[in-house]
């Protein structure tokens, strides 16, 4: 079965009159939702309107391919890395020999489409041989077609402080490049602590996938950026096994796991020409430099941006919110 919206003609963003009307009606609906700064609230989470339109369209139309695997995350928690690793793992037969990997010529976000943006824009623009779709949509708002399917989901999360700092830099850089005055770090922090950030509340996003992973462990793999950094090799093997393409003994002996780790490392990807000077979604009004996805790639950079008091406050909030869930995020 092909993963798609039933037809491009029914899309909220396509050229047809029907599509335009639908886009307009999503916009109209969104204009009635609670709004703070540029975020609108829908089903308990906060979104920039263009992603929310895509999400609403996906909820109405998206049908996954039965083999699809969803790369899920709250923004800035390790998505780029996870996309690169899963893409490299499931296309590894194409990576060997002299055939150049797509990861050398494309930013990982151009290898794995985003459900609520790329798919909504053009569901046909997809390499059907790659069974990967990404989304930042919280578990409770995923299209019913995804939740009720047999598709697997891989979720990555990260210490809230590092996720917040990474998000603030990302949005502030994008806004500055469009001559928009960004929120100060302090303003954005206050909002984040009250649950208002892209796809936030952060803790509800994490908890939604955490609880679902406990309920459906064979379907949802829950990972953290910090654990993955600590022992990347065992995570690469775990990912391959979960995706149904385990490494053979022969591959392991030939160093395939290490090759993938090196190819997807921050050092390697961030120094590629395409990621230094290329553009993501270059032909759209939402174009951005690929370099924005590669800032530092470190654990604990929050301490260079937030005061100790701010850090302790966010830790306390996370502790309270996650209490009783059995989940302890690394800090
Ligand atoms: P997204 O939500 O826009 O896709 P995402 O990839 O989830 O962003 O997060 C970006 C973070 O991952 C950045 O962290 P930083 O701001 O703290 O530096 C980015 O540097 C980091 N990152 C990107 N690629 C890699 C990689 N290959 N290995 C480790 N970290 C990475």
Automatic annotation (TrEMBL):
Q: Which organism is it from?
A: Salix purpurea
Which EC number(s) does the record attach to this protein? 2.8.2.-
User: Which residue range or ranges hold the Sulfotransferase domain?
Assistant: 67-326
A Pfam family (short name) is: Sulfotransfer_1
Protein name (Swiss-Prot/TrEMBL): Sulfotransferase
| InterPro entries named in the record | P-loop_NTPase, Sulfotransferase_dom
Q: Which GO molecular function annotation, any one, does this entry have?
A: sulfotransferase activity
Q: Give the first-level EC class, as a single word.
A: transferase
Q: Which family does it belong to?
A: Belongs to the sulfotransferase 1 family.
Record keywords, A-Z? Transferase
């Amino acid at each position: 079965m092909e993963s798609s919206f039933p037809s491009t003609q029914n899309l909220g963003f396509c050229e047809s009159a029907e599509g335009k009307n639908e886009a307009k009606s999503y916009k109209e609906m969104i204009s009635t939702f609670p709004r703070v700064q540029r975020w609108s609230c829908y089903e308990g989470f906060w979104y920039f309107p263009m992603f929310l339109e895509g999400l609403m369209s996906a909820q109405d139309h998206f049908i996954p391919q039965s083999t699809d695997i969803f790369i899920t995350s709250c923004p800035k928690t390790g998505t780029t890395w996870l996309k690169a690793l899963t893409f490299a793992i499931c296309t590894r037969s194409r990576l060997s020999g002299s055939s150049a990997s797509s990861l050398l010529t494309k930013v990982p976000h151009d290898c794995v489409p985003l459900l609520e943006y790329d798919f909504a824009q053009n569901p046909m623009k997809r390499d059907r041989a790659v069974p990967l779709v990404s989304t930042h949509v919280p578990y409770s708002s995923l299209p019913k077609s995804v939740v009720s399917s047999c598709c697997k989901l891989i979720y990555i999360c990260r210490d809230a402080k590092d996720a917040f700092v990474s998000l603030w830099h990302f949005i502030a850089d994008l806004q500055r490049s469009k001559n928009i005055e960004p929120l100060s770090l302090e303003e954005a922090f206050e909002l984040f602590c009250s649950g208002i950030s892209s796809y936030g509340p952060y803790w509800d996003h994490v908890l939604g996938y955490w609880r679902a992973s406990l309920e459906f462990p064979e379907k949802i793999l829950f990972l953290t950026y910090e654990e993955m950094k600590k022992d990347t090799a065992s995570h690469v093997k775990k990912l391959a096994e979960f995706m149904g393409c385990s490494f053979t003994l022969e591959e392991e002996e030939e160093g395939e796991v290490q090759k993938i780790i090196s190819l997807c490392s921050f050092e390697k990807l961030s120094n590629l020409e395409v990621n230094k000077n290329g553009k993501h979604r270059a032909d759209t009004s939402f174009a951005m430099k690929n370099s924005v996805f590669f800032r530092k790639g470190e654990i604990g950079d929050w301490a260079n941006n937030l005061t100790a008091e701010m850090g302790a406050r966010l830790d306390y909030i996370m502790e309270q919110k996650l209490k009783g869930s059995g989940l302890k995020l690394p800090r």
